[in-house]
């Protein structure tokens, strides 16, 4: 058996996880952060609770999809925590697929190692630097999150930023400040993702209810970005 990533799941076909391309998504097992709104809590543990797909199974699937799929997206959990992520990306590229990555930049050095192997990145910016530690439940998360964004900007790899919003953890003014921060750094594409509060790691967060009319807020947030979307 090859030594690959720890696979927590596979979406065989998606049109929304890599912009403009038909892709599959490999969900990598394990995440070091504990965002209360996380909707994939089964992927947080370093090892899956039940045996499932192995990396060899994923490679066999991809060999059957050559010419049918355009890209493979590594998601999570947090894919960059996988020691063999770079090798897995090389194997995917050797099969003729583009490589996408969904990441929050938990380990900046690990992200920096694999960025040259990526064609596109969906980057989770968790909030303003003052908010990130509370959102993730981890001390030092803010420095990692924002340092990784700097690395991504410097890499030249095509990317979008996305921010998941739970209104118990942020508000319109904080999002306006975040938009200003991102524009100032040169981020061109930003996606805001209202949380799906029906399934979360921490149900105690409760329903996500905004305290202001959202249509004007979305219009304000989108100003100055090449592309802005509420997803």
**Which band does the percent of strand residues land in?**
15-25%
The overall pLDDT average reads 94
SSE string, helix = H, strand = E?
A: EEHEHEHEHHEHEHE
**Class computed from helices, strands and strand pairing:** alpha/beta
* Inertia-based shape: globular
- Low-pLDDT windows of residues: none
Query: Share of helix among residues?
Result: 25-40%
Per CATH, the architecture is Alpha-Beta Barrel
Alpha carbon gyration radius: 17 Å
- Number of helical runs? 7
Distance between the termini: 39 Å
Number of domains: 1
Q: Please give the number of β-strands.
A: 8
GO molecular function: 4 iron, 4 sulfur cluster binding; catalytic activity; metal ion binding
Cofactor: [4Fe-4S] cluster
Organism: Halopseudomonas yangmingensis
Protein name: Anaerobic ribonucleoside-triphosphate reductase activating protein
Describe the protein in words.
With 231 residues, the protein is α/β, with parallel strands linked by helices. It has a single domain (7-230), classed as Aldolase class I (TIM Barrel), CATH 3.20.20. 32% of the residues lie in helices and 21% in strands. The chain contains seven helices and eight strands; from the N terminus they run E-E-H-E-H-E-H-E-H-H-E-H-E-H-E. The protein has helices at residues 55-64, 85-94, 108-114, 129-136, 141-155, 172-185, 214-222, and strands spanning 7-14, 23-28, 71-75, 98-103, 120-124, 158-165, 189-194, 227-230. The chain has an eight-stranded mixed sheet. Strand 3, helix 2 and strand 4 (98-103) form a beta-alpha-beta unit. Helix 3 (108-114) packs parallel to helix 5. The chain is globular and about 50 Å long. It starts with 6 loop residues before the first strand and ends with a strand.
């Amino acid at each position: 058996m090859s030594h690959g990533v720890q696979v927590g799941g596979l979406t065989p076909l998606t049109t929304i996880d890599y912009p403009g391309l038909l892709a599959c998504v490999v969900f990598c097992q394990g995440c070091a952060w504990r965002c209360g709104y996380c909707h994939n809590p089964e992927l947080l543990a370093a090892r899956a609770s039940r045996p499932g797909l192995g990396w060899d199974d994923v490679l066999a699937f991809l060999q059957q999809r050559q010419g049918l799929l355009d890209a493979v997206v590594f998601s999570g959990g947090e894919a960059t925590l996988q020691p063999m992520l770079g090798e897995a990306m090389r194997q995917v590229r050797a099969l003729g697929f583009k490589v996408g990555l969904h990441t929050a930049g938990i380990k900046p050095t690990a992200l920096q190692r694999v960025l040259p192997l990526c064609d596109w990145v969906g980057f989770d910016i968790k909030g303003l630097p003052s908010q990130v530690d509370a959102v993730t439940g981890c001390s030092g998360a803010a420095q990692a999150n924002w340092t990784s964004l700097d690395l991504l900007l410097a890499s030249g790899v095509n990317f979008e930023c996305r921010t998941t919003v739970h209104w118990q953890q942020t508000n319109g003014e904080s999002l306006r400040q975040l938009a200003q921060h991102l524009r100032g750094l040169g981020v061109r594409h930003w996606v805001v993702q209202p949380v799906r509060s029906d399934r979360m790691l921490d149900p105690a967060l409760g329903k996500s209810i905004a305290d202001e009319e959202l249509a004007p807020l979305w219009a304000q947030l989108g100003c100055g970005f090449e592309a802005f979307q509420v997803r």
